[in-house]
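anyone seen this seq b4? input:
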Amino acid sequence: MLNNCIYTERQRFDNPKHNQEERNVLKWYYRFIIFALLAAAIALPFFTKNKQGEPMLSLPKVDDLKPGKPSGTEQTFYKWQDKDGQWHYGDTPPPGGAVVPVTVNPNANVIQSVKPPSKTSSEAPAGTPTTVPGYTPPKPGDDILTLDRAQNIIKDAHGVNSLMEQRNKQLDAATK
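predicted toks r here
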């Protein structure tokens, strides 16, 4: 009887048509298992609760898809200084202490340009890039930093810094 069972299994294994059918069934079985595991892995965070008792992930609600406040409304935030002199900003003021409310219009974030006064003198304005004596400009494709080029870059940076300081002074004067 045992030999008969082994022989039957062997015949079944050797039959190419039957073996191919089993492979196809097993392929579909494994595909179904993999699909089910992927679906569970994707859906699990939507049903698992966090410490606050809410789902870890959730789909947006209808109210979340509606447009927010009108864009012309002003927003208020607060700034205060701690005992170490560090400035802090927040939506709600801290209890006690001196708090300065700051009102901001979200549409007013554009800085108006200020025209610098025209210079009539022949000297170069502050911040104009200058060259170090003996400096030769780099050739195209030349990416070696020489001492002369480094000094020129530092001078240009100082010039840009002074231009920015002048610009900040002009803006401060224009906004007062």
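The beta strands are 75-81, 87-90, 99-104. The chain has a mean pLDDT of 77. kinda curious what u guys think
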